[in-house]
Specification:
The complex is a heterotrimer. By secondary structure, chain A is of the alpha/beta class. In chain A, about 35% of the residues lie in helices and about 25% in strands. Chain A has two domains: about 240 residues, 3-Layer(aba) Sandwich (Rossmann fold), CATH 3.40.50; about 70 residues, no CATH class. The longest helix of chain A has 18 residues. The relative contact order of chain A is 0.14. By secondary structure, chain B is an all-alpha fold. Chain B is built from twelve helices and no strands. Chain B is elongated and about 75 Å long. Chain B starts with 20 loop residues before the first helix and ends in a 14-residue tail after the last helix. The N terminus of chain B is likely disordered. Chain C is an all-alpha fold. In chain C, strands 1-2 form a two-stranded antiparallel sheet. In chain C, a hairpin with a 4-residue loop joins strand 1 and strand 2. In chain C, helix 5 packs parallel to helix 13, helix 6 crosses helix 8 and helix 8 packs across helix 10. The longest helix of chain C has about 35 residues. The chains are: A alpha/beta, B mainly alpha, C mainly alpha. The interface between B and C is large, with 43 and 51 residues.
Chain lengths: ~325, ~300, ~325
């Protein structure tokens, strides 16, 4: 319909879990947009809620103990209002997802050919035979040699890189408009990582897919993404295009993160940079700005009032009371 | 109308305080009910003499096979003995047997399992023997040992101990093997700690959780097996009442004196149920992340 | 794969030997001379001596052991003095009822258990699950003979629609045969069901939390298909183990139920033999039980290979 409607728009997403130790808010305040063909990187430390966000989009979280609030708009419709049947139609079809550990993410007792064919059969009402043939083609497209042979094999008979290719084949079998990739290369050897990322990129170009790429690796962000959202303790604290993030980050946490990455060039430093303090537990979220306890710029406002995600310049949003001073303060990557 | 799974909330939430150990105990229904049952039956066992209005061995042929009444709450048996009093004592005796067997079997099983997990040679020997014993249905093994040793209470204990050592040894061994692989053991070995020291001071405490859960279930099966043994006439010898041999007496009069079977049977079920509830609840309590735990469900 | 099977069968032999030695020792060391028991209290020393010789009990232990082994190798398991027939014959005669009972009980148990276990896992945390879990917990807390007595009281004594006890072989007609087995197999089957339901529920729950289930969900696979197609197959392995072991237990250890319902099965035979020190039968029984157990384990392991390709590979290696 309208060209200006984004493919995916998340507004103030909030996700709570009921756990043994009480209710906990895993995400509180995640908002971002994704246009068709854009690659959004979501970066942050472990436990910041990146995977929860991803899984919330497809509602993969445990139904009985998860509460949602906010909106997840996909092609103009709020996914949080979809019933079970509609979600099942959507998953693997319009929106697909690949996961971090391909070994445990594939069914160990089903041949990989059948696992790929399953998606096709569900969404494209193909016959067993046709779906299987298509599966073999997909294996070829993802660069797996001797696909006929491999299709009969089981996940444990493949290498890590091959398994991830299989996951990609499954995800792309129905040509989704949006691909969510949750740390797709973290569990792989460095040499394979590049191959997998290249594969994803080439498919993205072919299908003009939107991609949400979750990672904790800034190198991957720099290489692949057009846009980046930085998360901390369940919130998006900065969101902008990738160049601006590297050139002019405004949020103290973002700056701290990027400074923490050891540099090959430049002078050798005595101490590696680290951000003071540790990430608090989700059961003890600080009042006010969540990063305040660890932030050198924190004032009493910061400790008492939660800043909202504000647009501070074109295509750049920050959740910080003092971004002004910060932006004057520290520039890391001159280019 | 299609099923909706949405629960949309639009108010800010309050985060409840972290549950401490005590409230986790009470909110774990299994553990709670199991413990209550166990406490009740233990109290019965301990205070059996106070609870019993009649002498358990006192025969009263005039009143044999009397139905439950105000005078005899659980009726009388084929010798005119008060079933209520005998049941109270039966609980005590069955529990005593259970505790003794379980304790002894646990200590021996723990030792055997630990040693087997650490020393290859002992592992082969012990585990072959355990496998052999394990293949045997416990009841047959118990009967065989009883008939070899003779019909005495102490022999019941010995027989059951022998029957249940393998199951404890196995669990201990599997759990110990897992702990053994952990890095801190390697660190201790590098520091020069002696094997026995590592085994008993370091590995043992780390396998307590699965051990205690298994011990609870072994206790439950002991009670059941003693009952079966006595039911076949190969258990606690008369006239001392165990819940099992009361059922043996009841077997012959089952059609005209149901109370001889129902009441002792009821208490067997209560004790074993209490133990099983406790065991399940204990397992959940010790490992709240275990997926067996009943999920916290939404209640908004 | 056949190499694997042969290897497993061969490993039976050392196990059997160990078991045989142990049992032989236990039996012969215990007090009580069978000849005395057979002849009763009024026997004279000469009569006892004569019987001893006849039974071969006067020879040294080791000799007795090897004679026994040699006989077995030829298929002769000895003769029961009490029953007056070869041990093997006695076994075969008593095996029928026990097998019928075991198969019937296990069928009842497994069908109920799979249904309930799946329902419980699907509805975890809700009332259905609580009910099923609670009932199966009670089910494993009831002694079999208690449940059996209860069933007898209701169906045989009060309602009079089924016989109290006894047994009729298949040759007398299928309904006759089944009539006597209904109550005992419900008794055993219920307890089996409780046991297997717990394992089914537990295994399904464990498998449901695995990563590949999340992937299946992300593919859009329906809830039903996830449960039945993806979860059940992987979860089935531990369930299969329990089914196998409990079946072996039914065959070898249903003594109490057989006694209650007066079914002339292996359990009754063994118990009676133990009580009257019928050495020949006891020794044969021990061997038979061990064989059943080992074969059952082998069968389960082979089925594992059929279900799980990862296991298949390791067997062929």
């Amino acid at each position: 319909m309208s060209q200006t409607m984004p493919l995916l728009k998340i507004e103030d997403l909030q996700v709570d879990f009921a756990t043994h130790q009480g209710e906990v808010s895993a995400i509180d305040g995640v908002s971002f947009e994704l246009e068709e063909g854009e690659i959004l990187g979501v970066v942050g430390e472990s436990g910041c809620g990146k995977s929860v966000t991803a899984e919330a989009i497809l509602q993969l979280l445990d139904e009985d103990s998860t509460f949602y609030d906010g909106k997840i708009m996909f092609n103009g419709e709020n996914l949080l209002e979809y019933d079970k049947k509609k979600m099942e139609k959507l998953r693997g079809n319009d929106i697909a997802m690949i996961f971090q550990d391909p070994m445990s993410s594939l069914n160990p007792v089903m041949s990989i050919g059948k696992q790929i064919a399953e998606s096709i059969r569900i969404h494209q009402s193909a016959t067993k035979k046709d779906a299987y043939k298509k599966a073999i083609e997909l294996l070829k497209l993802t660069g797996i040699p001797s696909p006929d042979q491999r299709a009969k094999e089981y996940p444990h008979e493949l290498s890590g890189g091959m398994r991830q290719r299989v996951m990609i084949a499954i995800a792309l079998s129905c040509q989704p408009k949006l691909l969510i990739a949750d740390e797709p290369t973290t569990a792989l050897d460095v040499t394979i990582q590049a191959q997998i990322l290249d594969l994803i990129t080439s498919f993205q170009k072919q299908l003009n897919m939107g991609i949400i790429l979750i990672t904790h690796d800034f190198g991957v962000i720099a290489n692949m993404c057009t846009k980046v959202a930085v998360m901390y303790l369940g919130q998006v604290i900065e969101e902008t295009d990738v160049r601006t993030l590297f050139k002019r980050p405004f949020h103290p946490y973002t700056i701290g993160l990027m400074k923490s990455v050891p540099q090959i060039e430049g002078e050798r430093v005595e101490h590696l940079h680290s951000i003071d303090g540790t990430v608090p537990s989700l059961f003890q979220i600080p009042k006010g700005c969540r990063f305040a306890p660890r932030c050198k710029y924190a004032s009493s406002t910061c400790e008492n009032k939660m800043p909202s995600l504000e647009i501070v310049e074109k295509n750049h949003r920050v959740r910080c009371w003092h971004y002004d001073e910060v932006k004057k303060g520290e520039l890391i990557y001159a280019d | 109308m299609s099923e909706s799974t949405k629960v949309l909330v639009n108010k800010p939430l309050s985060i409840r305080k972290t549950a401490n150990k005590k409230s986790r105990f009470f909110s774990n229904r299994l553990l709670l009910v199991g413990s209550i049952l166990l406490v009740i039956t233990t109290l019965i066992g301990v205070f059996a003499s106070f609870l019993s209005p009649y002498e358990i061995l006192e025969i009263d042929p005039k009143n044999r096979l009397a139905a439950p009444s105000n005078v005899h709450w659980f009726g009388t048996d084929n010798f005119g003995r008060d079933v209520f009093s005998r049941t109270m004592y039966g609980v005590r005796i069955s529990l005593l047997i259970g505790v003794t067997v379980t304790l002894v079997a646990s200590v021996i099983g723990l030792t055997v399992g630990l040693l087997a997990s650490y020393y290859k040679l002992l592992d082969h020997i012990f585990m072959r023997i355990c496998d052999g014993l394990f293949a045997f249905p416990s009841i047959l093994l118990a009967i065989a040992i009883m008939s070899a040793l003779g019909p005495k209470s102490i022999n019941v204990i010995i027989a059951l101990v022998l029957v249940f050592i393998p199951s404890i040894a196995r669990i201990v061994r599997s759990a110990a093997l897992v702990v053994k692989e952990k890095v801190f053991i390697e660190a201790l070995q590098a520091q020069g700690a002696s094997s026995l020291r590592i085994l008993f001071l370091h590995i043992a405490p780390n396998i307590l959780a699965p051990l205690i859960v298994q011990v609870t279930f072994v206790f439950a099966v002991t009670i059941l097996t003693e009952a079966s043994l006595s039911f076949l006439g190969a258990g606690i010898p008369a006239p001392l009442p165990s819940l099992g041999n009361m059922l043996y007496d009841g077997k012959l009069a089952i059609y005209n004196a149901w109370w001889m079977t129902v009441f002792p049977g009821l208490f067997i079920i209560l004790i074993v149920l209490g133990l099983n509830l406790f065991g399940d609840g204990l397992r959940d309590y010790l490992d709240p992340k275990s997926k067996q735990t009943v999920k916290r469900r939404k209640n908004r | 794969m056949s190499g694997y099977i042969i290897k497993r069968l061969l490993s039976l032999i050392p196990v059997l030997l160990v078991v045989a030695v142990v049992v032989f020792l236990i039996i012969h060391i215990t007090p009580g001379n069978p000849a005395m028991i057979i002849l009763g209290e009024g026997a004279t020393p000469e009569q006892i001596e004569e019987l001893n010789q006849k039974l071969g009990l006067d020879k040294p232990l080791i000799a007795q052991f090897f004679i026994w082994l040699a006989n077995i190798a030829q298929g002769d398991f000895g003769t029961s003095y009490f029953l007056g027939k070869p041990v093997l014959t006695a076994f075969l005669e008593n095996a029928g009822p026990t097998l019928s009972l075991a198969v019937l009980s296990q069928l009842i148990g497994v069908s109920i258990a799979l249904l309930l276990g799946i329902a419980a896992a699907k509805n975890q945390g809700r009332i259905k699950d609580d009910l099923i879990s609670g009932t199966s917990l009670i089910g494993i807390s009831i002694p079999s003979f208690l449940l059996g007595s209860f069933l007898i009281m209701i169906f045989a004594v009060q309602l009079k629609i089924l016989p109290v006890s006894g047994y009729a072989p298949l040759s007398q007609g299928i309904w006759e045969h089944l009539k006597y087995l209904i109550l005992p197999s419900i008794t055993l089957g219920t307890i089996q069901a409780a046991l297997i339901t717990r394992m089914t529920r537990s295994s399904l729950l464990d498998t449901l939390s695995e990563n590949f289930i999340k992937t299946a969900k992300a593919k859009g696979v329906s809830e039903k298909a996830i449960l039945l197609k993806h979860t059940l197959r992987v979860a089935f392995l531990p369930i299969l183990t329990v089914i196998g072991e409990s079946f072996a237990g039914l065959v070898t250890g249903a003594a109490v139920t057989e006694s209650l319902f007066n079914i002339p099965g292996l359990g009754q035979l063994i118990v009676a033999s133990i009580n009257r020190r019928d050495y020949a039968v006891i020794q044969g029984a021990v061997l038979m039980i061990t064989v059943v157990y080992v074969l059952m384990n082998l069968l389960v392991d082979l089925l594992y290979a059929v279900i799980d390709p990862r296991v298949r590979n390791s067997y062929q290696a």
